[in-house]
Amino acid sequence: MRGLMMDRPLMISQIIEFAAMNFPDQEIVSRTAEGELHRYTYPEAAKRSRQLAKALQALGVQPEDRIGTIAWNTYRHLEIYYASSGMGAICHTMNPRLPADQLIYIVNHAKDRFIFVDTTFLPLLEKLHQHFPDVEGFVVMTDEAHMPETTLPRVHCYETLLKAQDDDYRWPEFDEHTASSMCYTSGTTGNPKGVVYSHRSTVLHAMMVLSISGVPINEDSSILPVVPMFHVNAWGVPYFGLIAGAKLVFPGPKLDGPSLAELIEGEGVTDAWGVPTVWLGLLGHMRQTGSKFTTLKRTLIGGSAAPRAMIAEFREKHGVEAIQGWGMTEMSPLGTVSIPRPSMRGNWDKELEIRGKQGRLVFGVEMKIVDSNGQPLPHDGRSQGELLVRGNAVVSGYYDNPEANAKAFDSEGWFRTGDVSTIDPDGFMEIVDRVKDVIKSGGEWISSIDLENEAVAHPELAECAVIGVSHKKWAERPLLIAVREQGSNVTREDVLKFLEGRIAKWWLPDDVVFVDELPHGATGKLQKAKLRDQFKDYSLPTE
Ligand code: AMP
């Protein structure tokens, strides 16, 4: 017998209309690209999103068209999220820090029809736009008074487009499996891979986050997503925050310690979400000025391992609960959070050990660890294996990328995370290594293989390996380990100079170490795990 319940589609547009109706005076505060604070209410956000949907229609945007964004976390970016997805188009957020060749690739691979851009990133687009033959126009996310001079062709002003429309618009209803947004993630090598979220997966993920006991988000919350809106939809904050009726506080371009501290205190922020690097800056500022948080209750730290010292400092100096979360772009992103069970609380040292793990499952995600033959390993806290996941907000295939898809799933359809972990009998997962050859610096990926390929092009280097070495500020930074050609006296400085200009500046290795030979396995494969072990305590000169 089938259940006799209605089958209503889960639509992103429902979120903003629900929020506007239920929380009519709740605020959304943003630091804008121009610097000042902007504030308005949920109903105003909903009204302007409807106006923007009409403006998109007036530009000729059709369902399934890709709307690119290169933008900070602000209210206008939020409006683009809702307007583009809500009308049936696809919001494609892009990371402005990507190397130029990767940005060019993803704009063309996604087939973006329009790109919305904050004034800060105009120079970037002025340099690259001739590589985007299919982009019909660019919308600068500002008003007429702040519209800069630009050499960018086919340019529109955001507020001018909005002004031309009223908000008499009804969101269409369509299949909940329709694509709503996309986000590219950098892989081990080659071009980034596109993850395409659906209305259903986005709404389900938002509800999953709100079901985590221990992370209460509600009308009394004031939530600051420091995690960028171009990185997995700011971990879902723009969706679940509105369902919960929380005040949203967007930091715009100012992510330094003093600016974040000012925003947290000024806007009564209770919950702040971001990567360890930003919290390091914030805690450093608090230390230097001797200040204390008066409103902040929780931070959710993810994207890279949260250092135990950071979790301890939040709690011991500020009474703030720091919760580690783990997830991936491919998982919408949340998979686990580390909140000790009630029976584990009381002894802070023990609690800290648990909080240092990546945590227990969020409802709606399943995980397993497997050995090299794909056989499941026990949850004994000791057995280490590759971590695989599945769930309704987990990727089922990368966009138009059969090569990546052939490797990404096991025979039962579970997604390979590329992380190596243990799972203890209480269900807490801990990441111990990575099988994917990438380095995560300040929350963003660097491909070690791409770096090695560039470095080995140096005529005096015979072989190169790049590994991630732990770094206090950036979590990890690249270390280049190289074998010189016979008779060569090439120096660290020569190699770094050679790499300059060939790779994005922030990819430049923090140090170069010369060795006589690199470790290889029986098949000749470079043994990165051995190198990582050998250099695990390496102290980088940039620390
Ligand atoms: P991204 O898709 O850019 O969000 O990156 C996802 C990857 O970041 C994961 O597969 C992990 O390798 C890493 N990661 C995310 N959160 C954590 C965490 N809490 N601890 C350690 N690594 C993490």
Short description:
The chain is α/β, with parallel strands linked by helices and 543 residues long.
- Count of DSSP H/I helices: 17
Broad CATH class of the largest domain: Alpha Beta
Count every beta strand, where a strand is a DSSP E run of 2 or more residues: 25
If classified by CATH, what would the architecture of the largest domain be? 3-Layer(aba) Sandwich
CATH superfamily of the largest domain: ANL, N-terminal domain
Structural class, judged by helices and strands?
Answer: alpha/beta
Q: Which ligands, by name, code or SMILES, are bound?
A: adenosine monophosphate
CATH topology of the largest domain: Rossmann fold
Largest sheet entry: 9 strands, mixed
Helix content: 25-40%
Task: Give the low-confidence spans.
Answer: none
Domain count: the total is 3
Mean pLDDT: 95
Strand % is 25-35%
Strand order of the largest sheet: 2-1-11-10-12-13-14-15-16
Q: What is the CA-atom radius of gyration, in angstroms?
A: 23 Å
What would the principal axes of the Cα set say about the shape? globular
Note the gap between the termini. 64 Å
Topology:
Elements: H1 12-22, E1 27-31, E2 37-41, H2 42-59, E3 66-70, H3 75-86, E4 90-93, H4 100-110, E5 112-117, H5 122-128, E6 137-140, E7 155-157, H6 158-163, E8 179-185, E9 193-198, H7 199-210, E10 222-225, H8 232-235, H9 237-244, E11 247-250, H10 257-266, E12 271-274, H11 276-289, E13 298-301, H12 308-318, E14 321-327, E15 334-338, H13 348-355, E16 360-361, E17 365-370, E18 385-391, H14 402-408, E19 415-423, E20 429-434, E21 438-441, E22 444-447, H15 448-455, E23 461-471, E24 475-484, H16 492-499, E25 511-514, H17 528-534
Parallel strand pairs: 1-11, 3-4, 3-5, 4-8, 5-6, 6-7, 10-11, 10-12, 12-13, 13-14, 24-25
Antiparallel strand pairs: 1-2, 8-9, 14-15, 15-16, 17-18, 18-19, 19-20, 21-22, 23-24
Helix pairs in contact: 1-2, 1-9, 2-3, 7-9, 10-11
The structure holds adenosine monophosphate.
The site of adenosine monophosphate has 19 residues, from strand 14, strand 19 and strand 20.
